[in-house]
Every structure is written in C-alpha cells, then in structure tokens.
Design brief:
214 residues; alpha/beta; TIM Barrel; seven-stranded mixed β-sheet
Amino acid sequence: MELGARFIETDLRLTRDSHLVAVHDETLERTTSGRGRVDKHTLAELRELDAGSWFAPEFAGERIPTLEEILAFSLEHDIGLYLELKPGGVWRSEHALVGALRGSAVTDRLVVLCFDAQILKAIYDLEPSWMTGLLEQHQAAGLVERALSVGARQVAPHWTLVSREMVRQAHAAGLMVVPWTVNEPEPMRNLIAMGVDGIITDYPDRLIALLRAR
C-alpha cells in the first residue's frame, strides 16, 4: 500500500474449523513455524505460529492473517482486494467465502480469483453480482470462453500467455485482462502496450514509476 498499490492480492485457504486465512502453500513448513497441511489445523492452532521469520528477521512474530483482518484493512485504508481462493478443506471453500463476505462493505472493491473454474461457477450461482477472475498458468487457448462459461468478468493468465489477440478477444467479450506476476519493467511495458487492464506484481513501485514515465 505504501508503494502505491491500488489492490492487494492474497491467497485464502480453509482451516479445519472452516475459517479462511491468508496462506499461499497447502502446507505450513515453508512460511511458518508449523508443520503439516493448513486444513488439518484449527484457526486457534494456526494463530500460534510465527509466519514472518521466513521472510526477514524484522517480521518475526507475524501471525497468519484472517480474512476478517484483511477485510478490515481494506476498509480502513480504502484499498481493493484480489482474493485467490484455494480449493480444499473440510468444507467447500466457496461457501465459506460467500458466507464471510455476504453483507460486507468491501464486496464492491474485491475480485475473487481461482484456478478452478467450477469454484468460480459456484460463486457466480450464489452471488452473480460479484467480480470474479479465472486464473490460468499453462493454457491460453480457450481461456476467454472458459471464463465466460462460469460467469467470470476477468481473466488472469500468467503473463507469458498474454498476447494482443488474447486481449482483443477478452475485451470484445467484455472481460478484463489482469496478468500475473510481472516483476521486470520490459514485460510490464509490453503488456501495457497490449492493452491489459491491470498487472499483478511484487513491485508496485516499479510499475507505477513506469506508468508515470509514459
């Protein structure tokens, strides 16, 4: 946020007791002091873990954020959210997300992302007004059609899959194109020239500096 990002993207996983928390990996070893699968632990157990030391010593003692904390941050700082929903858990994650977000003041400033098209379809069936985006890592062909078939309003391909033709097709179908994860200036420039609608990056300051220099 301090670097100028307009949205924050984070991953969500379901705990054993059906709470949503911000964890990228399916397991805890890489980014926390815990062990085992996220969905085999309760929220209380996960909140005891150190989730900061792996990144840098000054973040030692950071806790795994809950969805509720992320939503509160969004409201407090007037910043949008891209929430990538990871499948799995003891309860269907899309139902947990819809239940947590229904009635929230942030639904007009968030996009739900998922690699699983059927999860996006389930969210669309429950809340058709929400903005969703279909993630894709490997297959560019048919991405626009797959997104439309599940009610998505954005496509979020890996940046190496994006072409001018994909952007043209997506825009013609009323879809936004938001590639990930683009960290170097040259591909950022190329994607902007293709007409993408946003860029997911680990370095928003680089992207903002490039946009200002145009």
